Amino acid sequence: MVYLDNSATTKPEKEVADKIYEMLTDNFGNPSSFHRAGLDANDEITKAREAIAKALFCKSEEIYFTSGGTEANNLAVFGAAEVGKRRGNRIVTTAIEHESVLKAVDELEKRGFEVIRLMPDSKGNISENQIFEAVNEKTILVSMMYVNNEVGSVLPVASIKKAVKRAGAPALIHIDCVQAFSKTEIKPDKLGADLISVSAHKIHGAKGVGALYVRKGVRIAPMMFGGEQEKRLRPGTQAAPLIAGFGKAAEIIPDYKEQARKISEINSYAKQNLSEIKGVVFNSSEQASDYIINLYVPTFMTSQTIVQHLSSEYGIYVSNGSACAKGKKSHVLSAMKLSDKIIDKSIRISFSRNTTKEDIDSLVFALSETVRDYPV
Are the C-beta atoms of residues 351 and 345 closer than 8 Å to each other? Predict the structure, then answer.
């Protein structure tokens, strides 16, 4: 198996799986219970919270566990809008956000909020100037991803704080770091972030658990009610096994500089070899994250068929966009105003720290064969 769909999910590391199994079999108490089994489970949640806080360069009390990135994004967007609605009604985001943000702001727009969606250029980039022009004194929330999950665009999120300050806006700043966490250093203070979303299964943890960083002193409204867990911001029995696994995944994040060097080499090697396939066009910009390459494949097949063909014939796993979209036409490539021909025949390959040059060789061979046997 050649797995090149790491933006959709990563393979859990053995240490993570072992920790989850330990929690399911030996440390299975309800972490809200006051007996020994409950206290032991709660201790593991505390350790996990500290590990994730360390990886995010923040305080452990600023970490709130959720069921994943989608819930963390929804909690940030709806929670910030509810608290800020008395001070303004403008929300600034981009047209290339994850659907968990896009659908949330769509709903808020129906409720009377003004939503500004910044449009990317043809390579998926958003400019700093666009942010400054969009943020005004009535802006209560700016929600933007750090790294785009389909084309790898690195958005100018560090500029948001400057724009908010210049406009004198009461805005909270939410940064979706699901695709950036564990791949680059994320420091909330340096970014000027009030809220940050992360997810375990993008960093070699398990599916079903994520976290929202909420800067100390910032208040957002809860979306759920019914318990004291997570300081009532996200009530409900905590998924202690998944949370403990998330903590372990955060603990074993490799050195950022060494990891960046390796992935940069993989990215360059992939682009060099893929560019030798006649007709291939890269949709990702040169400034995009090294972890993601989105490209047009010159074949009569649609992107979904290319994905299935590579899987069934070669054991190679790539994607035709966000896994959450489940085959729908990419809203990111559409927002970039690419032609239907390009959109319908584009795939995404995404790397992890486990990706090798041999994986790239297998992909290049398979795509070369596919383009030869099934030309446009």
Answer: no
Cα of 46 vs its chain's centroid, Å: 24
Structure tokens at 210: 């994520």
DSSP string, 345-370: TEEEEE--TT--HHHHHHHHHHHHHH
Chain segment 45-76, per-residue pLDDT in tens:
999 999 999 999 999 999 999 999 999 999 99
Q: What element of type H or E holds 340?
A: helix 340-344
Please state, rounded to an integer, the average pLDDT across all residues of the chain: 97
CA 45, 52, 150 angle in degrees (round to 5)?
125
pTM metric for this prediction: 0.96
What confidence tens digit (pLDDT) does each residue in 97-139 have?
Answer: 999 999 999 999 999 999 999 999 999 999 999 999 999 999 9
Residue 302, φ and ψ in degrees, nearest 5:
-80, 165
Quote the CA–CA distance of 369 and 100 in Å, as a whole number: 37
Report residue 350 as tokens. 């995404």
Q: Give catalytic residues, as residue numbers.
A: 324
Q: Per-residue pLDDT averaged across 17-35, rounded?
A: 97
Measured CA to CA, the distance from residue 272 to residue 36 in angstroms comes to 57
- In Å, what is the CA distance from 41 to each residue of 17, 46, 68, 373? 16, 9, 20, 56
Cα separation values, 85 from 82, 146, 298, 368, Å: 6, 25, 49, 54
User: What b/e sequence results for 320-337 when a residue is b if at least 16 CB atoms lie within 10 Å of its CB, and e otherwise?
Assistant: bbbeebeeeebbbbebbe
CA distance 199 to 206: 9
219: tokens are 């208040």
Reduced to 3 states, what is the DSSP secondary structure of residue 92?
A: strand
> Both tokens of residue 182?
């564990």
Structure tokens that stand for 335 in this block? 């927002």
Q: In what helix (H) or strand (E) does residue 16 lie, and over which residues does it extend?
A: helix 14-25
β strands within the chain, DSSP E? 2-3, 63-66, 90-94, 114-118, 139-145, 172-176, 195-199, 210-214, 281-282, 292-296, 316-317, 346-350
Q: Give the Cα separation of 305 and 108 in Å (integer).
A: 36
